[in-house]
Amino acid sequence: MNILALLQPLRPIVSQTTMRQMSVLMGAMLAMTGRVTMLGMARWTDKGGSYRSVQRFFQTTIPWIQVMWAFFRDHLHQAGDEYLLVGDECVVSKSGKETHGLGRFYAPLWGRPVSSVALFALSLVNPRERRSYPVMSEQVPSQEGVNREVKPRTRRKKAAAQSSAGRPGRPPGRRNSIKTEVTLTPELTRIQTMVKQFLAVVDQRLKLTYLVLDGHFGNNNALQMVRQCGLHLVSKLRHDAALYFPYQGDNKRCKYGAKVAYDNLPASCWQQTIIDDGVHTDIYQATLRHKAFAQPLNVVILLKTRPTTGAQARVLLFTSDLALNWSQVLEYYQLRFQIEFNFRDAKQYWGLEDFMNVKKTPVTNAINLSFLMVNVSQVLLQDLRREDPAVNVLDLKAHYRGHKYVAEVLKLLPQKPDPIFTEAIFDRISRLGRIHPPQPALCPS
């Protein structure tokens, strides 16, 4: 497939020169081996892909939000399908001291803070296909890393004594805070800005209702941030969260009823029991309240028990949409993990962990180009999967690498061979190195 033809939806957004440079780089990234750096790409490009041209592309300011959305809209969007907006943070380890945004961020792979670049990405997940497509990413400022100054904590009693001049109890004149009026942290402000920017670009073709985030955002501030964007939050609470049933009595001022006892949940909340690999999972759903949240929550409780040992585990999922079914809450939160496959592909195949750019614009372009290649590879794989559904990115790269080798060899021949024989050569060489090779084609005698 002609890559330049794939990029035609970007014509109103970027210049013709930028689009041509992008197509040349994408062709090199599909065929190349080794680290995906500017120099590495320049070694695999055809005419128009010199190292200076690669440098000029990475110095170009590109409106990546519009680029990512236009490509998804024209090539990956399925009319009539529901989509979830999923967000998560990704940490890319980097050495040196000059890379833009470099700081010490916690990396789960190492289990400790490392010198790295962190970014927050948004992806659209199709529940029917169970696939994720990155649509936006932004670097996390180094000030939000773990190297920021941590203020020493003071004891609550000491602070209360200082504020009330030694008088115990609640200070006079103090009123209850309105929980819907929250002060967003710099992290939540940055994420809210990203979500609003993306929603402003999306047209009427796509209706978004839910933003799915991990348990780090299972708090009232994150919930209010999402509601201010016009979306519902799907996330996870702590396993020991103090939840209460809504008050059912006559006192209108009371909000909280009996506290939820996880070892004695009412049978009316039970939904289903699943037995998998000897583990019994009891699923409960109820509308509950939390004293730190401003509104009732639609909570799905998963109680996992291994009868042979008696070991138990508990997972609390929640959403601000009180009408959402428990199976959808569970499915939506499970689909959140699809964004991790975007991070894996971008790091493993498309240079997210290889780039050596230092300044802000080249770093931004390197990050977003790797995520755009995740979507481009999905479009290219659609054709190959019609013949073999098991084809993956490694097969795609082997296919393009074989075509690259054959094209270079044909340039050396004094006379081009017969087109039928040429097609057979392309087919045979492109199968080398593939994990899922296609059925061998008959070569002409």
From TrEMBL:
Transmembrane segments: none annotated. Residues 133-180 are annotated as: Disordered. Residues 10-273 form the Transposase IS701-like DDE domain. InterPro entries: IS701-like_DDE_dom, RNaseH-like_sf. This is Transposase.
